[in-house]
């Protein structure tokens, strides 16, 4: 049996279901599952916020007895281990489904092929690796956390059409993009576990780094890369730390009394390795992965962005270009080497572009 166009349609629907809690399931992947028989969808499930229950048992429970003889579409290999929930592979076998159309093998060593193998051993007809590019995109955070000990990183850059992120010193606040692009930014934030920002941006823009969308209440963790622990207690990030979880990563030389002052107002601080006077990005990401984070949204500034791209750590890059030129010199949004790397087809693929009101966007994925 092979995968039919109809299968691909249902598999895409499962991917869309999985995306429902994207940004809220860490440290688990956001998986989607669909139970279908004779062209009728009998059950739909997706990994719940917090990572459990998993997608498959929910879809199978909805289908109930009718799952016997049906096809289960699932965007990632079903788990084979007894973790915080029993193995999904066993639930699938018990449900009596005849066929499983599955995505990529789960790199989690507790599963790593054993989920599919167990289904086959039980006589279920199993297809694997369906739509691998889409599957990798959907589960990139989980895959990178398991295979590279770091979360995936989406880097957002906003620039004027003449290439600046801000005016020169003392003139940094600058509205580059309009409402549509700003709303898109909030949606993107909401699809990540954490929002990461460098101290330059905090001092220059005094951002809030929260999701402000009607109906969205979950706030990603705010992560500030702050070598010397300079975060001003009066900054908007520090002032709001009571309501939104905030983590300051600082270097070993940071003044302990400053760390204490931040801890007192509800900000978590942690020491992190430094390289060339800045928080080492790889070390920072490894720290976040150990905390179970899988998806990080980096918003600044140009220095952090250039380093993420330079070190091969910017997995997706969303570039917003506003309509009003700065018209004078300022802070470049993208360093020359970073721009070259983005334009290099051996390094990045342009996966989407379009307009958002008067602004434009381009979306790249690391090869
Ligand atoms: C699935 N379906 O919907 C998800 C899976 O600690 P546990 O028991 O929740 O297991 C966590 C692991 O399960 C996680 O590392 C990943 O390999 C897998 N996630 N598996 O069958 C799901 N979210
Ligand atoms: Zn599972």
TrEMBL record:
Binding, Zn(2+): 54, 79, 88
Superkingdom: Bacteria
Cofactor binding, note field: Binds 1 zinc ion.
GO molecular function, one term: diaminohydroxyphosphoribosylaminopyrimidine deaminase activity
Entry keyword set: Hydrolase, Metal-binding, Multifunctional enzyme, NADP, Oxidoreductase, Riboflavin biosynthesis, Zinc
Pathway terms, separated by semicolons: Cofactor biosynthesis; riboflavin biosynthesis; 5-amino-6-(D-ribitylamino)uracil from GTP: step 2/4; Cofactor biosynthesis; riboflavin biosynthesis; 5-amino-6-(D-ribitylamino)uracil from GTP: step 3/4
The protein's name: Riboflavin biosynthesis protein RibD
